[in-house]
Design goal:
Helix content: over 70%
Shape: extended
Order of helices and strands: HHHHHH
Number of domains: 1
Structural class: mainly alpha
Largest sheet: none
Length: 204
């Protein structure tokens, strides 16, 4: 269980660093990043659609699942081509998708804040505030659209940078809390063992 917990926290830390770096890139190179992001998204959808169509052609068995794969493949491929051909039209959708991802991260931060509170960590309120701010920033991207592409990308970059940095801090606090709890439990166990050893010694 301890190794599983460490693996989860390591993945969270890596994701936080990626978010922070990506946010910094979007802030420094907004227009180029937006174009590349839309093209990459369109290419991924196009490739997925083509793969689904190829799988249908390779395994035509007349089943409903096979037909659904063909329909999904055509839709994904068409959507990919549309995004590649008109990346600026997708600029309004991209912030909302990223906003949803940031909201998910904010909800995770709130869960970590609850963990810190249960462990009586003195900084759980700070983690709670950071999580709420992350959730609010994600909601801004979801519910508000902007018209200037560079402004959109810079705002997304700032939100991602904040999300990554706050996640790094919260993860560090959770790790400290877990290590301190383990030390306290070990100290309590050693104290109990010492008392038991003293009581088991023969009295002179």
């Amino acid at each position: 269980m301890n190794s599983f917990f460490k693996s989860i926290k390591t993945n969270s830390l890596v994701n936080a660093v990626i978010y922070a770096v990506l946010g910094l890139v979007l802030i420094l190179w907004p227009v180029t990043s937006a174009s590349m992001l839309c093209l990459a998204l369109g290419a991924v959808l196009l490739i997925c659609g083509v793969i689904d169509v190829i799988l249908f052609l390779s395994h035509r068995d007349g089943s409903l699942y096979s037909g659904g794969m063909l329909v999904l493949g055509i839709i994904l491929a068409a959507l990919g081509v549309w995004i590649i051909a008109s990346p600026q039209l997708v600029a309004v959708l991209v912030p909302r998708v990223i906003g949803i991802l940031i909201c998910i991260h904010g909800a995770g931060d709130l869960g970590d804040a609850v963990t810190l509170h249960q462990a009586n960590h003195p900084r759980w309120t700070a983690a709670l505030i950071l999580g709420l701010v992350t959730l609010a920033l994600g909601a801004v991207l979801v519910f508000y659209s902007f018209t200037v592409l560079s402004t959109i990308v810079r705002i997304i970059g700032f939100f991602l940078l904040y999300d990554g940095v706050s996640d790094i801090w919260i993860t560090g606090q959770v790790n400290k809390s877990v290590k301190q709890a383990a030390k306290d439990a070990e100290a309590q166990t050693n104290a109990v063992d010492a008392d038991f050893t003293d009581e088991s010694k023969p009295k002179e």
